[in-house]
């Protein structure tokens, strides 16, 4: 079986609409998710949620950990709960095959070697300000539409997912600078985006300016 065949099999698991709802809920959650919370979010029974969650684990889309949610330890504390979170890694299928990642890596290398960081940031800021997704005033909706998976951490809006993860890992200064500029252009004026990495997520976080 080729890598492409394996990816097709993996993504075919998401053909079930219940599994898609469960996967999206777990993937967007800032912390590990238990079966009860997942069942409630998907509007199904706990036993059905457990079945589908474990199918997503078998497919390699989710990973499992165990922890006592009560925080208690020792005798009488009960069994640890089975918790789920999105698995690391990316799974992309293109029909017919395309190689945009290779082109992106090549372009990033050229830009970095040429020292064109400022030019890239200016272009990214302008692209963000254009707001082609139509969410002119709702920054959460705009970020969600672009795949950032925003969530609130106190008064800070953090981003669970980095849409440019592969390139950011290889060219962090170039790509993170571009990403910050893009979000600066995207966010309305009352927001203040800064470089404040979320563990396992995006390098940018947003907060409201004090005068707002």
From TrEMBL:
Pfam families attached to this UniProt entry: HTH_20
Record-given protein name: Helix-turn-helix transcriptional regulator
Species the sequence originates in: Streptomyces eurythermus
């Amino acid at each position: 079986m080729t890598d492409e065949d394996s990816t097709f099999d993996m993504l075919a698991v998401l053909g079930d609409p219940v599994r898609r709802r469960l996967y999206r809920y777990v993937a967007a959650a800032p912390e590990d998710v238990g079966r009860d919370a997942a069942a409630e979010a998907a509007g199904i029974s706990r036993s059905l949620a457990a079945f589908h969650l474990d199918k997503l684990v078998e497919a390699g889309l989710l990973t499992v950990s165990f922890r006592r949610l009560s925080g208690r330890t020792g005798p009488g504390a009960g069994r640890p709960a089975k918790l789920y979170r999105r698995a690391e890694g990316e799974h992309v299928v293109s029909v017919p095959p395309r190689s945009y990642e290779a082109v992106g890596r090549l372009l990033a290398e050229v830009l970095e070697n040429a020292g064109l960081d400022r030019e890239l940031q200016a272009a990214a800021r302008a692209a963000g300000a254009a707001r082609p997704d139509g969410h002119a005033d709702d920054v959460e909706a705009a970020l969600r539409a672009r795949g950032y998976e925003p969530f609130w951490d106190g008064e800070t809006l953090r981003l669970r997912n980095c849409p440019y993860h592969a390139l950011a890992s290889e060219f962090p200064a170039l790509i993170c600078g571009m990403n910050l500029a893009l979000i600066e252009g995207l966010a309305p004026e009352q927001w203040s985006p800064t470089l404040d990495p979320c563990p396992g997520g995006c390098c940018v976080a947003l907060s409201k300016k004090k005068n707002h």
